[in-house]
Amino acid sequence: MKIKSVCVFCGARDSVDKEYIDLAAECGKMMSSKGIDLVYGGGRTGMMGAVSKAVTDTGGKVVGIYPKLLDDLEPLNTNLDNTIFVKSMFERKELMIEKSDAFLILPGGFGTLDEIFEVVTLKILKQHDKPIIICNYNNFWQNLIDCCEEIINKKFARTHARDTYEIADTLEDVFVKLGY
Fold first, then answer.
1. Which Gene3D superfamilies match (predicted)?
2. pLDDT tens readout for residues 101-153
3. Considering 23, 85, 112, 125, which has the largest number of Cβ atoms within 10 A of its Cβ?
4. For the whole prediction, is pTM greater than 0.90?
5. Which of 115, 143, 136 minimizes the C-alpha distance to 41?
6. Exposure of 46 in the CB half-sphere (CA atoms within 13 A)
């Protein structure tokens, strides 16, 4: 199946180093150049804002799924093709999962961790069979990857759990793994 839409999970804080904002912007440009629509959390700050702006600025399509409870914490990006307002973070994740053909995890914080574990767990439980790519840019996620391996090695998860996601070190590798 050709990947037409990718949900990008990443940080929403403006205080991160510029290299992460640049990574998100480059990701957005690459998505747009390949005709891949962006599905994301709807915010305009941090990496989330950078990836959506890059997709929009290069002619791509963006769907933002935004819980109103974030109004004071994570300002809404009003320059989207489609904004869906939801009541909760749970509903946000549910719709992002439903509207995406694949998931790309860029560096992020606790919200990103929540999203990673949600899509991985649902894939383990056979609730979806969509690709999950963790972009381990500059080894950002290496400790998490090692922790997941330890969970599997200590038999707290089945060995096939490691088959639910792929690791990519660069954006170029991400898009190869997505079939581009």
1. 3.40.50.450
2. 999 999 999 999 999 999 999 999 999 999 999 999 999 999 999 999 999 99
3. 23
4. yes
5. 115
6. 23
